[in-house]
Specification:
The protein is an all-alpha fold and 65 residues long. The chain has a domain of 44 residues. It is 78% helix and 0% strand. It contains 2 helices and no strands. The chain is elongated, with a radius of gyration of 25 Å. 0% of the residues are buried.
Length: 65
């Protein structure tokens, strides 16, 4: 890998950064809302699975009420 001086490196970084397609504010908000909804649904799902499995283990071990 060829070594470049710091000035050239900064120029290359700026050139690559200019190629990045940044999301719009609307896209960021929509994606954030979707992520929050999906993580909430998954949290509830795994809470339910944990409760069912926990009760099954307590029942099988005979330590449940």
């Amino acid at each position: 890998m060829a070594k470049v001086n710091p000035g050239e490196f900064v120029r290359q970084v700026r050139a690559e950064t200019a190629k990045v397609v940044w999301p719009s504010r609307k896209e960021v908000i929509q994606t954030t809302i979707l992520v929050l909804i999906m993580t909430s649904i998954l949290a509830l799902f795994f809470l339910g699975v944990d409760q069912v499995l926990g009760r099954a283990v307590r029942f099988l071990l005979g330590v449940g009420d």
